[in-house]
Every structure is written in C-alpha cells, then in structure tokens.
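Quick one:
INPUT:
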C-alpha cells in the first residue's frame, strides 16, 4: 500500500515509462481529490468512490492515459468526465491548458475546490454533455475521455487538431484503451490494455 507520492510513483514505474508523467503524478496531491473518509487510501494505486456514483480513477490508469496522449507541455487538452478533477490536475502538469467537462454539476464544484486547494490554475471547468466536447476552444491537441463508449463520439473526433490524439476506453464488457490520431483526413487507431470505466452518457 502506497502512503505518499514517492511510494506511489515507485509502484507506477512498473507500468509507466514516461518520466514527465511520473513527475506530474508525484506533484499532484491526490489526497485533495478523494473524500475525507478515504484519506488513508489517497495514495494507493486503486480507484476510489466519489459522489454521484462515480470514481476517482486508479493512478496507473490515469498515468497510462496521460502517457498515451504523448504530451510535451504546449498542448490544449480537452478532458471529458471531470469527476473528482484528479485526472485534469495531472493533465494540467503536462499541458498548457486543460478544458474539463462534466455532466454532474456537484462533481464540478467539488473538482473546483480540489483544484484550488492543489494550487492548479490552468484548468477550465465546464458543466455539460461531454460527448459534444467544447467547440468554443477547439481544435484540441489532445482529448482524454474518462468513460467508455462503443465508438468515439463524432463531435470529439471532429474537434481533434491535425496530429491530435484522443485516448478513450472503447468496448462493452471487454473494454480497451484506444488511441486515435488525426492524420490529415484519416483517423488512425491503436489498441492497448484492458480497462474498466463507467459508460459515457449523452444528454
């Protein structure tokens, strides 16, 4: 069981090879994003329940999704499914700005408080239908989707910049992380490890 950032990152090294991602995870106080009654588990490599029947994702999965986005620090990122705000917080350490959208207003308010507590200022929180993305700030260099779908929502694909990457869990019971990359008018797909996410809900 990990009990601090250093111990957690040592555990994650078995799966994640990108040092920038590991530093980002170490820099984000995960204890700011978990419910008070679960503080003892904040640094463990496991998903934890939050409000609205949602979860804060397992750090290994957050790290892998960030790694697959291949961020360099200059990108504008769309994060679909804010939840606790933890994934957006890690992304904020890896990109220039993050727009994070969530359909549950109560989760957005909780995430706002947690991000302020963590001292993170380059995340814009939005309440709305994540399947529609956020056209006002498009196109995005990277799109992170923290909920599963059978196919990537067309609106999100349209909001990818040239060369842009989207990481999304695709499938039903057998979900896999998928990376989509825009190459001109074409979208390339790569499949990675199995995961388990809640469904992506459209309004």
């Amino acid at each position: 069981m990990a009990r601090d950032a250093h111990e957690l990152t040592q555990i994650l090294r078995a799966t994640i090879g990108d040092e920038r991602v590991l530093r980002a995870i170490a820099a984000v106080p995960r204890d700011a994003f978990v419910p008070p009654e679960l503080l003892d588990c904040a640094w463990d490599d496991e998903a934890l329940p939050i409000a609205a029947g949602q979860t804060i994702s397992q750090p290994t999965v957050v790290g892998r999704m960030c790694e697959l986005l291949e961020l360099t620090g200059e990108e504008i990122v769309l994060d679909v499914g804010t939840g606790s705000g933890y994934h957006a917080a890690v992304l904020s350490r890896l990109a220039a700005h993050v727009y994070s959208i969530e359909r549950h207003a109560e989760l957005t308010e909780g995430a706002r408080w947690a991000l302020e507590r963590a001292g993170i200022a380059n995340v814009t929180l939005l309440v709305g239908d994540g399947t529609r993305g956020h056209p006002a700030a498009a196109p995005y260099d990277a799109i992170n989707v923290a909920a599963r779908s059978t196919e990537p929502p067309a609106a999100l694909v349209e909001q990818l910049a040239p060369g842009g990457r989207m990481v999304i869990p695709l499938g039903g019971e057998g979900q896999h992380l998928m990376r989509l990359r825009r190459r001109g008018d074409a979208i390339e797909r790569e499949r990675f490890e199995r995961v388990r996410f809640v469904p992506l809900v459209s309004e």
